[in-house]
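#random but structural
TW: two for the price of one
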Amino acid sequence: MLSWSVNPAPQLAETQFSETVTVEPVLAPSSVKSPEHVEHLHAPRAGETASRIADYRELFKVRVTLMVVMTAWAGFYLGSMQSGISSVQPGLIEALFGIALVSAGSAALNECLERKLDAKMIRTSRRPMVTGRIGLAHGITAGLAAIAIGSIWLARETNLITGTLTLITAFTYVAIYTPLKRYTSLATFIGAFPGAMPPLLGWTAARGRIEWPAVALFAILFIWQFPHFMAIAWLYREDYGRAGIRMLPVVQPDGWSTVFEALTYAVLMIPVSLLPVYLHIAGPYYGVAAGLLGLVYLGYTIRFARITRARSTIESKMYARDLLKVSVIYLPLLLTALMLNAKGK
C-alpha cells in the first residue's frame, strides 16, 4: 500500500508592531477545512513514487520483458514478410502488448514463488517481494491478472493459437521450471523451452499457424540460451548454492560439465543460426553475418573454458562475465541482420 505523509503547513512567524493593531476575526467559509482536518490529508513523501515504480519494474522484470518483446517483434516481422504485408500495423502493437503482459505476469509469479530463495542470495535480497515492499497477495494478484489479460487479449486481437501458446509458455515457466530449479540441474534445459517461445509467438501472431521458419527461430533462441545461462550460473554459483538452487556449477563445482554444455551449444549455434537461409526466409548477407557472429560467440565460449584452470575466483568470473556480455550483444545483432536481409513473399 502507498504511504502518504506531509508536514503540517509552517506557522507564520510572529511579527511585533510598534502600535497595537486590532484585527477583526474573519469567519472561514464552510467549504474551507479547519487545520485539524488539513492534517489528515496526506501527500507522497519525496521519492516514494519513484521507489514504487522501481519496485514494479523489478517485480515485472522489465529488462527481461523488453528482451522478450524484441525477439517477438523479430518473429512478427519475419512472419509479416512471408505474408507479403508490412509489419508496421496495429497488429504488431496488439501482439507485443499481449506478449509483454504475459511475460511480466510470469516474472511476477516467479518472484512470488522464489521470495524465500531470493532472500538467501545477495543479488536478489533487495527484491520487493523479499523486503515486503510488495506483499505476497499483491504480487500474486498482479501476476495472475497480467497473464490472464495478456492471454485473452492475444486470443481476441491476434488469434487463438497465439493466445493458447502464450498461456502454455507462462504455465511451463511458472509451474514447472521455477519449482524444478531446487531439485535438478535439468531445470535449465526445461526452462529453455519457454525462454525460446517469443519469436515463435510473434510469427504465429502474424501468420496464424506454426511453420518451419517459426520453429527455426525457436531453435535459434533455444540454443543461444545455454552458453548465456552457463555464464550466469558460474558467476553466481555461490548465491545459487546458498539458496539451494541446483544449477550445474553448484552440482558439479569443478566447472568441466559447465564448460562442456556451453561449448556443445555454442558449436550447435552456428548451423542452427543458418537455418533461415536454408528455409529461404533470409538472404546470403545474413548467412555471412550469422557465420561470423557464431564464430565470435564460439570463441568467447572456448575462452570461458579457462574457468577450469583459473588461478583465482576473480579470474574465472572474468571469463564468465565476458561470455555473458558477448551473448547479450550477439542475439540482437543476429536478429537485426536477419530482419535486414529477410526475404519477402
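TW: number two ↓
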Amino acid sequence: MYIRVRFPSINLLKNKQTMYAQKTIGRRAFLKNSILGSSLLVTTNIPLHAINLEKDDDLLKGVCDIHLHATPDSRERSVNEYKFMQDAIRAGYRAVMFKSNDFSCHDRAYLIRQALPDAECFGSFCMNRVHGDKVNVYAAQKAIETSGGLCRCIWMPTLDAAYQYQRENRKEQGIPVLDNNGQVLPEVIKVMEICAETDIIFATGHASPEESIILARKAHEIGVKRFVVTHANSSIWTMTDSQIKECIDNGAYIEYCYLPCLWGEGTKMPQYQRQSIEEFLSFVRIDPERSFISTDLGQAVMPHPIQGMRDCIIKLQTAGMPQKEIDLLVRHNPAWLIKVN
C-alpha cells in the first residue's frame, strides 16, 4: 500500500532555502545565541518556547529525544544546549542527542556534562559541506575519537545532500552517497565501517527513500547494528509502507519526527503540509519494535522541543496506543540506539 503525500512546492524551496526556511545568522548573533535562546512567537497548537515543568514529570520521565537542534548553531534556534539540558533534567528526560547540520556538538556535550553531572547528553556529526564536498572519512574518525566518546551518530549529508539539492532545483551539486551507477560510494562504506567498529549510529540524513534502501542493504552487509533511516514520515523523505518494511528487513531502525505534525498553515513554516495525527499514527504503528520518535524541533519559530515531545505523547495516549509501544518509541529504542545503559 502506498501513502499519498503532498510535497512542498519547489518554488517555495528555491533561493537556497533550507529545509526549515530559516535564515542564517551572522557571527555576532551566533555568539549571542550560544548563551541566549530566542523568544519569537507564532500561532501553533502548543505554546512556543515558554515551558512550565515540574521535576520528575511522569509523562516525560525516561524520555530520550535523539534528534533536536539548539544553539550554538549557524541557524537561529529556540534554546541553547546548556539551557535545554537543564530543562530536560528537570522534566525527567533520560537522555538527549543533539544535532547540528554544520558543526560538531559531541564536544560541547562533554563540557555540558562537566557543568551538569546529571546530564546524559550526547552529540552527533553531519556530513555537510562545511566538512568538504564529499563524505569526509577523516572527519568521521576524529569525531568518534573526541574526548568523552560522546559522538553517538554519524549522519550522512542533510541540508547539503545531493537529493535535497535536486529537489530544490539548485545549480550546485550536492554531496552524494551513491555513484552514478547507484552503488554506495567508497567513502560512505568507510564511514559505515567506522560506525560498525565503534557500534554507533549510522543515519541516512537527507537521502532519498530509494537511496536509504540501498544504504540499508549495504549497512546490513557490513554489519552496522545501529542503522537509522531518518525522516521516514517527513516531507520529501516520506517513505511508503513497503519501503519502510524493506529497510527494517535489512536491520534498520526507523525514525519518525513529530515536527510535521506541528508545521503547516497557521505557523511560521506554512510551506509544508501538516501531517495529521492519524497519518503520524499510521507510520509509528508499522513496527514499533524497530522504530522511534524524535521531535526534530529547536527551530526558532516552532515550539520548545520538550513541549513538542509532551504533546506527542499525549496525542499517542489519546489515540489509544498501548503504553508499551509508546515506551518503545520514545524511551527504550532511542536509549538503546545511543547506548544509554
